[in-house]
Amino acid sequence: MGMTMKRIENAAVTATVAAAIVVLTGCGGTGTQRVSAEGGPGALDAGTGGVCGGASTVAPAELQRIGHAVSHSQFAESLNAVELESVDQALAGGGRIVVGEVVAVNPVDLEPLTLLPGDEAGRRGSNTYAGNSAYWGGAVVVVSVDGEAVELPMRLAVGGADVIEALGPQVAEEDLASLVGTCAMGIVGADEEALVGGTRVVALASDERAAPVALDARFRGIVADAATLGEMVPENP
């Protein structure tokens, strides 16, 4: 599953984020995703925003509450990420914007989080460093885009297996389930082993005309200034 957008080009950023994650790590185990993703109807055109199926039943206030919990989750706070000034910044290293209807939200108990990226010599990335193993927990949001089921990770907690277990769910499973039918905007990364800035959900809205709710802390300002999801999509994404 593609989880990332670009390789970190700034060594200082890499060191800072890696250090923050390593502090949270403990003994690792095997990664397990509880539910496999399945696609569904309601595809949207990623270039124009399209039209969602209108199947959302979550109230605007509830969506705001869930969005706040996601964008202030343990994972988001551990990164201490700087807010972006534009969506184009998030696409600087490649990748694409996707907009579509959420057709499933699948909880994830434990999934490896790449700490050390691969390299041009063919060595694969690793979720272990200095004897510690890093994992993430949260959910995979499945969005229907032009008939394709696109999987977007929603990372909510990070650390060793024992850390994630101790933290418990950052967002209630029933809240995650209530997001089915909403409109989602996400980014599909170009690099599968970048530590930050990778494939993820950016924002949700109850429909294509509703005000969006940020799910990514780096997009809080951008989302707050947009009246709809479509306003955030670059003309040539």
Task: Summarize it.
It is built from seven helices and nine strands, in the order αβαααβββββααβββα. With 237 residues, the chain is an alpha+beta fold. The two termini are 22 Å apart.
Summarize the helices and strands and which ones pair or pack.
Blueprint: H1 11-24, E1 32-33, H2 60-71, H3 74-79, H4 87-90, E2 96-112, E3 128-129, E4 132-133, E5 135-145, E6 148-159, H5 161-167, H6 173-177, E7 183-188, E8 200-205, E9 213-214, H7 220-224
Antiparallel strand pairs: 1-2, 2-5, 2-7, 3-4, 5-6, 7-8, 8-9
Task: Describe the 3D structure.
Helix content is 22%, strand content 25%. With 237 residues, it is α+β, with helices and mostly antiparallel strands. The strands form two sheets. Strands 1, 2, 5, 6, 7, 8 and 9 form a seven-stranded antiparallel sheet that branches. It has a two-stranded antiparallel sheet with strand order 3-4. The chain is globular and about 50 Å long. The model is unreliable at 1-50 (pLDDT under 50).
